[in-house]
Amino acid sequence: MSHHILEVDRLRHVYPDGTVALSDVSIRITHGESVAVIGANGAGKSTLLAHLNGHLLPTSGSVRVGHLPVRRDTLAEIRRTVGMVFHDPDDQLFMPTVYEDVAFGPMNLGLSGEDLERCVTDALRQVDALHLAGKPPYHLSAGEKRRVAIATVLSMSPDILVMDEPGNGLDPYARRQLINLLKDFRHSKIVTSHDLDLVLDLCERTVVLSGGEVRADGPTREIFQDEALLRECRLEKPLSMQGCPICGA
Ligand SMILES: Nc1ncnc2c1ncn2[C@@H]1O[C@H](COP(=O)(O)OP(=O)(O)OP(=O)(O)O)[C@@H](O)[C@H]1O
């Protein structure tokens, strides 16, 4: 299972305009962990996640998936192991129909015929989007697009699932379905979200980013109990930990 270990070592990322989005970030995620990366707007969450499957490459430092360093020449193998749900579903959906979008990855892995059909159907069913199979992605609602984007990644059966704001735009029912789906996913998952109740429900470990640096890394409930840390990093407790404003419970 060593290929399921994700190691980020002294990662620094400077965008071409000189913005230092990440400086000296180190994190080790072992097989089966469920980890949230949280932080205020601009903290560096999306930049960090984009390094985990080589969508961005480090300015310095390194990212490794098991024995493989994330580099231009290892990208194909890295992307078979690390499935990435992007912040914006439009970055993920580009085929004429939803079916073709979900089939794209498995087809490239050599699946065809009934195997391909079963794989696409299963992935769409998991996100309750089978009825959308024949639609063009640009006709979908925001929440439907999000669910289909998740299906394009599930259809590849990744060993590590990386999701940037997976709950964005989902109605409460779809959000709950997503949480249950992710709870059933046996391998490692790394999620960014401003939905801190989702984080509390889903991730036993939380990494707090602020100004491109790791400010805290530990058990999620302990992180959310640290009021000074939350204040400093412009975060708030999940609603479910804020108590009832009427009865004070
Ligand atoms: N392509 C880019 N060029 C220059 N600066 C960028 C680029 N993309 C992001 N940044 C900057 O890098 C920093 C980190 O951005 P990032 O998108 O990683 O933050 P985030 O924590 O995901 O924020 P949010 O919660 O708003 O999604 C910000 O200061 C942002 O302005």
Description:
The protein starts with 5 loop residues before the first strand and ends in a 17-residue tail after the last helix. The model has no long low-confidence stretch (mean pLDDT 92). By secondary structure, it is of the alpha/beta class. Helix 3 packs across helix 4 and helix 4 (113-126) packs across helix 5 (142-154). It has nine helices and ten strands. It has helices at residues 45-52, 75-81, 98-108, 113-126, 142-154, 172-184, 196-202, 220-225, 227-232; strands at 6-14, 20-29, 34-38, 60-65, 68-69, 82-85, 160-164, 188-192, 205-210, 213-219. The strands form two sheets. It has a six-stranded mixed β-sheet, with helices on both faces. The chain has a four-stranded antiparallel β-sheet with strand order 2-1-4-5, covered by helices on one side. The protein has a domain at 6-89 and 159-241: P-loop containing nucleotide triphosphate hydrolases (Rossmann fold). Strand 9 and strand 10 form a beta hairpin. The radius of gyration is 18 Å and the shape is globular. It is 34% helix and 24% strand. The longest helix has 14 residues, at 113-126. Bound molecules: adenosine-5'-triphosphate. The site of adenosine-5'-triphosphate has 12 residues, from helix 1.
What's the SSE blueprint?
Blueprint: E1 6-14, E2 20-29, E3 34-38, H1 45-52, E4 60-65, E5 68-69, H2 75-81, E6 82-85, H3 98-108, H4 113-126, H5 142-154, E7 160-164, H6 172-184, E8 188-192, H7 196-202, E9 205-210, E10 213-219, H8 220-225, H9 227-232
Parallel strand pairs: 3-8, 3-9, 6-7, 7-8
Antiparallel strand pairs: 1-2, 1-4, 4-5, 9-10
The protein binds adenosine-5'-triphosphate.
